[in-house]
Amino acid sequence: MNLNTQQLITMAVVGIVAGWLASLVVGGGGLLRYLITGILGAFVGGWLFSAAGWKLNLGNELAEQIVTSAIGAIVLVLLARLLA
């Protein structure tokens, strides 16, 4: 996989926004935590939506990525708290 600088920046911004949105729901904070939670949430959300066969159809690909990542981040944080 060959990522250019613009794609890496986009992934970081999506991760930070998704992590911030998840923190509004489940609490927590910090820029680094937003980034890590958002990026991991993207994987969890992508897998979850794919396994369930769901598609958001928001009309904007970036918005769909952010919402999917935020939902994945929320699920990830809730599972981590459940196990802790």
Task: Kindly describe this structure.
With 84 residues, the protein is mainly alpha-helical. The chain has helices spanning 5-26, 31-52, 61-83. The chain has a domain at 28-83. 80% of the residues lie in helices and 0% in strands. The mean pLDDT is 89.
Count the E strands: 0
Low-confidence parts: none
Shape: globular
Q: Name the average pLDDT.
A: 89
Secondary structural class: mainly alpha
Can you count the helices? 3
Terminal CA distance: 34 Å
Helix content bin: over 70%
Short structural description:
The chain is mainly α and 84 residues long. The protein is 80% helix and 0% strand.
Labels describing this entry:
84 residues; mainly alpha; 3 helices; 80% helix; 0% strand
Note the topology.
Elements: H1 5-26, H2 31-52, H3 61-83
Helix pairs in contact: 1-2, 1-3, 2-3
